[in-house]
Amino acid sequence: MILTVTLNTALDITYKVDALTPHASHRVTDVAERPGGKGVNVARVLAALGHDTVVTGFAGGPTGGVLRDLLAPLPVRDALVPVAGTTRRTVAVVDASTGDTTQLNEPGPAVTADEWSAFLTGYDALVREADAVALCGSLPPGIHVGAYADLVRRARAASVPVVLDTSGEPLRRGIAARPDLVKPNADELARLTGAREPLRATRDARRRGAHAVVASLGPEGLLAVTPDGIWQAAPPSAVKGNPTGAGDSAVAGLLSGLVEGLPWPDRLARAVALSAATVLAPAAGEFDMTTYRELLSRSTVTEHATAA
Amino acid sequence: MILTVTLNTALDITYKVDALTPHASHRVTDVAERPGGKGVNVARVLAALGHDTVVTGFAGGPTGGVLRDLLAPLPVRDALVPVAGTTRRTVAVVDASTGDTTQLNEPGPAVTADEWSAFLTGYDALVREADAVALCGSLPPGIHVGAYADLVRRARAASVPVVLDTSGEPLRRGIAARPDLVKPNADELARLTGAREPLRATRDARRRGAHAVVASLGPEGLLAVTPDGIWQAAPPSAVKGNPTGAGDSAVAGLLSGLVEGLPWPDRLARAVALSAATVLAPAAGEFDMTTYRELLSRSTVTEHATAA
């Protein structure tokens, strides 16, 4: 079983409007809702790949209720912990005239010390059943900035591989607790290390404590600095589309390859192909299995001459 | 008791953002929710004026549940009829840098024939207890365009005064059923009559069947064409602020004066003062009682020399 943790889950709402004009009134022509937050997205991709997947984190209030109702029909197990606060919404306003998206993200609910304790009890029990753990996304108010570091240590104490995908100070603290893998994007990497050059920044990130670092470099694919070597992985050609969820699909590919014991090049090929298939899919965060398989067969993974 | 009907209720959500930039991602710094839809707004003002007020219409799904929870502590009676569909949301995005608002309105839930029948049964019973009825706002999908005309006839059959505040074809059909009062704004009036000149358009609207027409002309106040005469009512000076809900406050003022048997000039003074107090209040659709009383004492109502 793979466990994904989303401390700041969200109900992702997509509004379609004819054309977004600031300070005007708009008729929303289409409303779509789906359960969101990075770990929930990762879980959905893992389930599509056939992995037994459990989702934990927090859910509360009417929005949390809708999120759980939408999770129920998916092939993932819901182990979300109830909170008194209300799960946040994100609203993506898609302008039908241009295809561009304007994003509005509510703040998450404040989580109390008792709710965090309840989560930790459940987390420790789930980790014991897990083949791998993914810790994903931002922290809601009330959760201490070292929370991911704590969760990394608990997974490592149970000898369960743990992947961390977050940003800012929670990433800085979490990486020092020695996760098996972190997957920053170029911006997160630069903020963490102060370095802009990808290879230098990725190596620097690894020296901060992660066993392996896979940096997602947008259209250029992935750069992996691991104990076994350095690789650059790329899709067969630059793909154009909606990048929402592409990073989460890459995490799912890496996790999937990890629990199957695949060598790094195969894990990376899976990650870039899933990521590119997600960019190509019309709906944000979705991917088409045939497109994924086709991209997987044509993705390239090149080993870097320099040692890690 | 005053009955307000809101067939297309809404959960009104207000998001504050630092500055709205199309195609960018925004952190929402503040989220506020309140029960909405024009008849709900009218009821809130009536209750603040001390009137016994009942709200009916439809509510359904998780959003409808939140709307009813938010109505519960207000001094209005909730007689909303449950529907299988989900009550719509409206999202007002307030740009803190300019104070401007960008509005996103979801479509309403489809109402079935059985749900409409259940509503009519409840409506007929409530109308028998009512001193006046207000029919407010748009029609949700599934409700026939002549619905307001039907509701006007039922109120008139029970000899209960009925006010209609809607637009487009529902207004055109509704006015032909001879409501006691309609309150179009300048745009609605022009669409209904084809005339742009306010007095001409208001008289034309009255000839279509309404016993009285009070046109809201924005900062210029109200123009009333009634069986007793023609009046122009204006606040003491042009007010600057958020016009959201100002029209609903005017309807509440007119209804309030109607059930108290006030002469037209007093009803109109109440309506312009409430409307201006609503524009001046910092929160959309709210008003301050002291500001209202002060504006009421200084509003002007001028009789027009020409006969109706």
Automatic annotation (TrEMBL), chains A, B:
<keyword id="KW-0067">ATP-binding</keyword>
<keyword id="KW-0547">Nucleotide-binding</keyword>
<protein>
    <submittedName>
        <fullName>1-phosphofructokinase family hexose kinase</fullName>
    </submittedName>
</protein>
<dbReference type="InterPro" id="IPR011611">
    <property type="entry name" value="PfkB_dom"/>
</dbReference>
<dbReference type="Pfam" id="PF00294">
    <property type="entry name" value="PfkB"/>
</dbReference>
<dbReference type="InterPro" id="IPR029056">
    <property type="entry name" value="Ribokinase-like"/>
</dbReference>
<keyword id="KW-0418">Kinase</keyword>
<feature type="domain" description="Carbohydrate kinase PfkB">
    <location>
        <begin position="11"/>
        <end position="286"/>
    </location>
</feature>
<keyword id="KW-0808">Transferase</keyword>
<dbReference type="InterPro" id="IPR002173">
    <property type="entry name" value="Carboh/pur_kinase_PfkB_CS"/>
</dbReference>
<comment type="similarity">
    <text>Belongs to the carbohydrate kinase PfkB family.</text>
</comment>
<dbReference type="InterPro" id="IPR017583">
    <property type="entry name" value="Tagatose/fructose_Pkinase"/>
</dbReference>
